[in-house]
């Protein structure tokens, strides 16, 4: 197991599985905000879910469909940004290998490895 690196307020966790085909690295956090890097394999899915944290992100590479309640689909590619409000229902379908940077406010305790 890799060890967490700590430099000031910067924490870099080992790459961990969030779901099948979806890995996460926690880059930095404090109590108010958290930044993570996600690696998503083509064909993977993240079921519809909610969380208290607001979530914003940018697609670094790849192609992803974010699904929203009511059937809305966000068709996003490299350079596209997105936002989900606190408790907003969302999920995803990964159309090709994709990488994301996401920020959560407040921090997610379940991502503090």
Give structural notes.
By secondary structure, the chain is mainly β. It has a single domain (5-108), classed as Sandwich (Jelly Rolls), CATH 2.60.120.10. It has strands spanning 5-7, 10-12, 16-19, 22-29, 34-40, 45-49, 54-68, 73-77, 81-84, 90-105. Strands 3, 4, 5, 6, 7, 8, 9 and 10 form an eight-stranded antiparallel β-sheet that branches. Strands 1-2 form a two-stranded antiparallel sheet. Strand 4 and strand 5 (34-40) form a beta hairpin. The protein is globular, with a radius of gyration of 14 Å. The chain starts with a strand and ends in an 8-residue tail after the last strand. Residues 1-8 have low confidence and may be disordered.
Task: Outline the biggest β-sheet.
Answer: 8 strands, antiparallel
Q: What's the total helix number? A: 0
Nearest-angstrom radius of gyration?
14 Å
First-last Cα distance: 12 Å
Compressed to H and E, one letter per element, the order equals: EEEEEEEEEE
Counted beta strands: 10
Which superfamily, in CATH terms, is the homologous superfamily?
Answer: Jelly Rolls
Strand content: over 45%
Mean pLDDT rating: 90
The CATH class name reads Mainly Beta
Helical coverage, percent range: under 10%
Structural class: mainly beta
Task: Break the fold down into its secondary structure elements and pairings.
Layout: E1 5-7, E2 10-12, E3 16-19, E4 22-29, E5 34-40, E6 45-49, E7 54-68, E8 73-77, E9 81-84, E10 90-105
Antiparallel strand pairs: 1-2, 3-4, 4-5, 5-10, 6-10, 7-8, 7-9, 7-10
